[in-house]
Amino acid sequence: MSTVIQAALDSWSLPLWLTLGLVITAVVYLRGWLHLRSTSLNVIAPWRTGSFLLGLISIWIAVASPMTVLDEQLLTIHMVQHLLLMTLAPPLIWLGEPVMPLLHGLPRSILRYIVGPVLRWPLVQWVGKSLAQPTVCWLAAVAALLGWHFPPAFMLGLHSEAWHSVEHMSFLATGLLFWWPVIQPWPAVSKWPDLSIVLYLFMATLPCDILAGFLVFCDRVVYTAYFATSQPFGLSALEDQQCAGALMWTCVTVVYLIAGAILTTRLLSPQIAGEDVFRESRADSGGTTQSVPQTVEVI
């Protein structure tokens, strides 16, 4: 093992509070899922639970695993973090239909006196409806992607732990926003034709392709801080940049292509709409007819 990698790994320490937060989230979800399973076997399929937990694991790998100590050494590692937070973890989380299990997994007192009143607050409902608009979701994700890859902003995050955390949080938040209209988990109401969401995904690939293509074909190093690193694995700074751009290009294209293919298949075969991977029927649970505040009251 490279001495640089060994030294970086030796400097890693487990982010206790972040790890604990993710573990608590998983426990609350599983508690709610088991409660729902005790009332109806068709509420949330086991594969959705696995998807949600895999999403949480992806977040931990991106921001808390030993890999994080190498993001200042390799742009490719930095890009892996961004892809996990924006492209992989959010759809996995939404496919887990997290709202209902998390609500049912929380203690009754928290639901009754905190969550319920907050969700019924008109301002919160207005903000939620506004943020769920596809245009807002698309613009937020593109702004975060391009904004944080602008060299001054990227260097700020690279040299400041606080700003690096803000960068990660913005990637995850806008990733969740971006995938909301695509997955449309409960309590989302299907308002947008599948064809428009396919176009939504296609338009989202354009800024990613432009940024990735720039990193791959640029003949100079964009983020000069990587000149000063020791470059593990024998990559030069320019080769590392090209690898990061190629990784982004490939990952985004494949993930968006899979999502677009699923939506297109449903569009061309309406008879399978009730069985698709994005919107599984939960009529037995009443989940499609209840609002979040009503669900809180029921609990």
Summary tags:
71% helix; globular; 13 helices; 299 residues; mainly alpha; 0% strand
Could you write a compact summary of the structure shown?
With 299 residues, this protein is mostly helical.
Task: Explain what the structure shows.
With 299 residues, the chain is an all-alpha fold. The protein has one domain (3-298). It contains 13 helices and no strands. It has helices at 3-10, 16-39, 46-63, 75-95, 99-105, 108-120, 122-131, 134-149, 151-159, 161-183, 194-217, 237-268, 292-298. Helix 2 runs antiparallel to helix 3 and helix 2 (16-39) crosses helix 5 (99-105). The longest helix has 32 residues, at 237-268. The termini are far apart. Mean pLDDT is 84; it is low at 281-294.
What kind of sheet is the major sheet? none
Nearest-angstrom radius of gyration?
21 Å
Proportion of residues in extended strands: under 5%
- Characterize the quaternary organization of these chains: single chain
Give the N-to-C terminal Cα separation. Answer: 53 Å
